[in-house]
Design a protein that fits this description.
By secondary structure, the chain is an alpha/beta fold. The chain folds into three domains: about 250 residues, Growth Hormone, Chain: A (Up-down Bundle), CATH 1.20.1250; about 30 residues, no CATH class; about 260 residues, Vaccinia Virus protein VP39 (Rossmann fold), CATH 3.40.50.150. It contains 19 helices and eleven strands. α1 runs antiparallel to α5, α9 packs across α17 and α16 runs antiparallel to α19. The protein is elongated and about 90 Å long.
Length: about 575
Amino acid sequence: MAVIPSANTTGYTLLRHDIVLIGIMAVLAACGLIYEYLLAHYAGRVIGSTDTAVYSMIGIMIVAMGIGAFLAKWIKNPYRGFSYLELMIGVFGGSAILLIASIIGLSYTLPQQLQAIYGIDSSIAMEGGIIAIIQKMASYTPYVFGFILGVMIGVEIPLIARIREDQHQTHLKHNMGTVYGADYIGAGIGAAIWVTICLKLDIMVAALGTASVNILMGLVFLYHYQHKIKQAKLLWVLHIAVLLFLLVLAMVGIKMTNGINATFFKDQVVYTKVTPYQHLTVAKRHAGKGLPQVYSLYINGRLQFSSNDEMVYHSYLTYPAMLASARHDNILIIGGGDGLALRDVLKWGPDSVTLIDLDKAMIDLFSGKDQQAPKDINDVFLSLNQSSFLDKRVSVINQDAFIEVESMISRNTKFDTIIVDLPDPSHPDLNKLYSNYFYIRLKELLNGDGAIVVQSTSPYHAKKAFISIGKSVADAGFITQQYHANVPTFGEWGWTIATQHGKSALDRIKEVETLPIEDRWLSKAMMEGAFVFSPSFYDSTSEIKINKLGSHQLYYYHRDAWTQNEGLFLY
């Protein structure tokens, strides 16, 4: 390795240099890891497969960092090279999210722009051919940006190692071990910062904050080593200019990114909130003169409900299970943070309802306690769920349901009905809440004459996932049946219902002559008819596996149906 000449230095000076360089390395390692998570997190939002995006991005950036480490040897002056490197990382890292959003947003608005330019009727769908290719290529931009950023981050460690040996004017036996040690510790600190701070921030704020730290480290480096760099004054000016650029981007970039993200939705985005667990988006549609406005909730870009037809979904979710239960004194709802299932359950006059939902921010939004939400949004949601969270009979527990269920079992808690209203198993963390083990634990909470119902995705667009849920519930020892109905917004949707002893849920429903609670959508005949499937629907059941804890089998079924087959109905 070529060593740049340096004046003799004292032990105190060498110690100072070591502290500066190792400290800079640790801070930059934290920034590098945050960049990985930022891009992976955003890729999951825009691509739709969070788990695949996260692991792919991290893998790509690690490979890119290795390539960057190889390329570092071509940089002749490590001092000047390091200074320019931090400038590039600051600019690229701070603007990456905005650039990715712009490229993807442009690809999605391209059909509308072409229709306007060439006067093409809006009824003509422009989804195939070159449009599909452009949109597919645009979806890969997070990985391209991740690779480029990874290469630049990978150059940092070799340069710091060379600079450190130059200061010592000798080959340091444990130089790489020391630098890598700082890198690993810094990355661990970065992970902690991501979990405790960045997840609570707007993604652009997190990106700009991280980029600013890169530039500040560049300034610290310049302060100590400017005498080693030609045109150091230019670098000072450039670093300050980039800080000003990031400041301007902070003032306008967040609004721009949110505006671009809104183009991913057909309806007008009226509120968006990033919580430590998910990205909530509220959209509004003007249905027409004299018609009520339609509000929709999206979680991580996936539709959760629309106000115009949510009653269809929630009637089918709650009513059969409540009707099949002998009593309705104590009810457990797992998920359902919008309070809509809770609203329907409260009509049965229970003594108490316990709702477990991990995300307190979502509960706040639907209970009118989100101080950042516009008043009209709060009013709409309180009207929609009839202020169900404000009912004194309701207890909300913000905890991972997997953990809380174990706690309830230890306290010998019992419920008459259990309603599992979780998002689809599109992530491994959700997969465990659809496992046979989890249903075995729920069985411990259910009274012998009660009933349990599980949201079970689409029986037609994700048939294997739907049947796997039914088999997993049955494997837990329940008398299990499945039913389905058309929810206009979702299409054909399905649920799994089960009892522990005696008659099945359907037999119990058939015994009822008159529905005890008035429902604005369901009739007894519709309820019974929902249990009817085509004659050959379950023919392939033996080939479909039970979702066991840790297997991720259901996650793979669901991913294949919606990602590989794009929800295509394959009978």
